[in-house]
């Protein structure tokens, strides 16, 4: 085994219960996975990935789908997700230019996991609202 093979083997050593051991540790300050986690789990990243799970969107279509996101924030979010390899940007040479965004295979996998979490949270919102009311009542309101 060469040193390159050894490094590759270390980066993805084994799988236990569907979780791959790797050289990356999101809890370490300098780990590059921390930035990607932030892009994926931030409000606009999660909503953008979730929306793109439904298919390809033009910028303004996506902006309407992700209600409340500003043009600037959506642009920054899409650039970060594209850089991380989760979103593909396709610019058509038309006048006016047409730009479509869609998930890459990796982005589709990430979005699927996010949507499972989103659906879980939505399904448990009654419990969350009751907990909030109980918390606010014991703490004198918010």
Task: Report what the structure shows.
The protein is 57% helix and 16% strand. It has seven helices and five strands. With 142 residues, it is an alpha+beta fold. α2 (33-41) crosses α3 and α3 (43-52) crosses α6 (105-123). The model is unreliable at 1-18 (pLDDT under 50). β4 and β5 (98-103) form a beta hairpin.
Could you describe the largest sheet, including whether it forms a barrel?
Answer: 3 strands, antiparallel
The stretches of 5 or more residues where confidence is low (pLDDT under 50) are 1-18
Number of strands: 5
- Alpha-beta classification: alpha+beta
Descriptive keywords:
142 residues, alpha+beta, 3-stranded antiparallel β-sheet, two-stranded antiparallel sheet, 7 helices, 57% helix, globular, disordered N terminus
List the helices and strands and how they pair.
Blueprint: H1 3-11, E1 12-16, E2 19-22, H2 33-41, H3 43-52, E3 57-58, H4 59-65, H5 71-83, E4 87-92, E5 98-103, H6 105-123, H7 125-138
Antiparallel strand pairs: 1-2, 3-5, 4-5
Helix pairs in contact: 2-3, 3-6
Task: Provide a short characterization of the protein structure.
The protein is an alpha+beta fold. The protein has helices at residues 3-11, 33-41, 43-52, 59-65, 71-83, 105-123, 125-138, and strands at 12-16, 19-22, 57-58, 87-92, 98-103.
């Amino acid at each position: 085994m060469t040193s390159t093979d050894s490094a590759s083997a270390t980066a993805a050593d084994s799988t236990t219960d569907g979780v791959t051991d790797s050289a990356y540790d999101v809890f370490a300050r300098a780990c590059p996975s921390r930035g990607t986690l932030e892009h994926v789990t931030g409000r606009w990243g999660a909503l953008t990935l979730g929306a793109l799970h439904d298919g390809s969107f033009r910028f303004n279509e996506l902006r309407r789908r992700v209600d409340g996101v500003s043009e600037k924030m959506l642009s920054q979010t899409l650039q970060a997700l594209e850089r991380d390899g989760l979103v593909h940007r396709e610019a058509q040479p038309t006048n006016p230019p047409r730009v479509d965004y869609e998930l890459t295979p990796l982005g589709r996998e990430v979005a699927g996991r996010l949507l499972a979490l989103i659906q879980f949270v939505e399904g448990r919102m009654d419990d969350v609202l009751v907990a909030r009311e109980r918390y606010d009542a014991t703490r004198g309101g918010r």
